[in-house]
Amino acid sequence: MQEDKKLRLQELLEQQKQRIYNAKINDQKEYILKEIPQFHQHYQFADKEDIIKLKMFLKSLPTLISIRLDFSQLPIWHVIKSFKDINDHFNVWICFLSGLPELFELYPYGDIQDFINDFDSWQYISPYLILVCDNFKDFIFIDDEKKMIQSQNT
After folding, report:
1. Phi-psi region of 148 (alpha: psi -120 to 50; beta: other; left: phi over 0)
2. What highest taxon heads this organism's lineage (predicted)?
3. Contact 130, 115 (CB under 8 A)
4. How far apart are CA 35 and CA 15, in angstroms?
5. What is the pLDDT of residue 86?
6. pTM of the full predicted structure?
């Protein structure tokens, strides 16, 4: 009987932790929606399947040194001088590299041109970002000084 109570208490504690965690994630979603007023017109959040793909991709990237990538381990990359160098329309996943841990669980998705238009707001949310392309191979890293490094042929 005592063991049943311990198990039940453990189960209730786990459920409470999950509710608190979900509430924190929802708080971060609300924060993003507040900072990006047109979010629902231009972006969407990743579903569970895409989150798994994104996490696998991010784990495959060169070592993160603090919040920066070790670019010496990338075979092909180049610096983007300005957003003006990106004229194309293609979709990207926005991955946050700084902020609250719950922010790392949210992956907005949208057109690169919309991201460029909203860039100051995105950088306010997190100064370090990785934009992952649809192919889950190419990406653009952006740091707090707005330095952009592009992998392969995004």
Report:
1. beta
2. Bacteria
3. no
4. 30
5. 80
6. 0.82
Listing from the earlier edge strand, what are the strands of the sheet with 139-142? 43-45, 108-111, 91-96, 129-133, 139-142, 148-151, 77-80
Residue 41 — φ and ψ, nearest 5°?
Answer: -85, -25
Are 114 and 24 in contact by the 8 Å Cβ rule? The answer is: no
| Digit-coded pLDDT (tens) for 21-46 | 999 999 999 999 999 999 999 999 99
With a cut of 70, which residues of the chain have pLDDT below it?
1, 62-78, 152-154
Distances (CA, A) of 67 to 4, 21, 38, 60: 45, 23, 28, 15
Whole-angstrom Cα distance, residue 94 to residue 112? 10
Beta bridge partners of 44: 109
Per DSSP, the three-state class of 88 is coil
Q: Is residue 127 within 8 Å of 143, Cβ to Cβ?
A: yes
In the chain the first and final C-alpha atoms are separated, in Å, by 61
Q: How many other C-beta atoms are found inside a 10 Å radius of the C-beta of residue 82?
A: 9
Long-range contacts of 83-88 (CB under 8 A, 24+ apart): 83/116, 83/119, 83/148, 86/112, 86/113, 86/116, 88/112
